[in-house]
């Protein structure tokens, strides 16, 4: 099978991690659901009150910011229409910035989203840290990926569409290249790609998780290391998931965030 991006397929909008379990509310407070026409399409993460991070390939067919929104603070990818709290924590996208190096997957697959209004932080909505180098997280076996993607190839997350979490290890590039050079499928892991999963398979991101965060904890603080990008199937042995290494884009992220000043809005009480 060929490599495939991990955004939602067609009108199906749910999805989840493979080998994952239900997350608890507030455990991953930076997790967002990037929504097209109001339906879950990709994952996202919150960087600060006005900015979210996702994968560039989520916007391949639609770059009109007015069609997109990001939902924060909810465990379900499909909160009830009567859930006013969800409604208040859904933010419209004002501008979409794709990496200037992005030419279509699989490399430089990262996007910044400027939100149209300032995010209200709560117990369940908090930003994630990013860092200029992730070298200290290489070979860590206790990182986590979260999302609403498929639970296995061709199997969508069932109702009530609860956010899934799965523990994965960061696999160094040399090892990952070795795995992907196995017979039947050859692909080069290069540039800003990093791999995570477990060699025997079974724990992985899948369709519908694209754009979501791969995070590692250090001294009580959580850092986003990668953005869910693509994979060969889901959870197959020797085919770890491939993520965009955020630290490669650290300078670009800082530049975009500083050039686009967020309008200071009066605090509303």
TrEMBL record:
Residues 17-258 form the Peptidase S1 domain. It holds the Pfam family Trypsin. One of its GO terms (biological process) is proteolysis. Keywords: Disulfide bond, Hydrolase, Protease, Serine protease, Signal. PROSITE patterns: TRYPSIN_DOM, TRYPSIN_HIS, TRYPSIN_SER. InterPro entries: Peptidase_S1_PA, Peptidase_S1_PA_chymotrypsin, Peptidase_S1A, Trypsin_dom, TRYPSIN_HIS, TRYPSIN_SER. Residues 1-20 are annotated as: Disordered. It comes from the Eukaryota. One of its GO terms (molecular function) is serine-type endopeptidase activity. This is Peptidase S1 domain-containing protein. It comes from Bos indicus x Bos taurus.
């Amino acid at each position: 099978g060929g490599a495939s991006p991990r955004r939602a397929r067609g009108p199906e909008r749910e999805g989840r991690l493979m080998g994952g379990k239900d997350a608890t509310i507030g455990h991953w407070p930076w997790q967002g659901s990037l929504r097209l026409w109001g339906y879950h399409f990709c994952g996202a993460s919150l960087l600060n009150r006005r900015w979210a991070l996702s994968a560039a390939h989520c916007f391949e067919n639609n770059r009109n910011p007015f069609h997109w929104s990001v939902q924060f603070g909810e465990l379900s990818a499909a909160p009830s229409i009567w859930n006013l709290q969800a409604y208040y924590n859904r933010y419209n996208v004002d501008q979409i910035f794709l990496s200037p190096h992005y030419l279509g997957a699989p490399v430089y697959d990262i996007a910044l989203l400027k939100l149209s209004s300032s995010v209200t932080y709560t117990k369940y909505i908090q930003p994630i840290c990013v860092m200029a180098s992730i070298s200290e997280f290489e070979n860590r076996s206790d990182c986590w990926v979260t999302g609403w993607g498929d639970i296995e190839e061709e199997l969508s997350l069932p109702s009530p569409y609860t956010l899934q979490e799965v523990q994965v290890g960061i696999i160094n590039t040399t090892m990952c290249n070795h795995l992907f050079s196995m017979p039947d499928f050859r692909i080069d892991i290069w540039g800003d790609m990093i791999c995570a999963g477990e060699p025997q398979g079974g724990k992985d991101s899948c369709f519908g998780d694209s754009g979501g965060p791969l995070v590692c904890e250090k001294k009580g603080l959580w850092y986003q290391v990668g953005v869910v990008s693509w994979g060969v199937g889901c959870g197959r042995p020797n085919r770890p998931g491939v993520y965009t290494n955020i630290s490669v884009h650290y300078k670009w992220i800082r530049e975009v965030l500083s050039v686009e000043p967020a309008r200071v809005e009066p605090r509303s009480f």
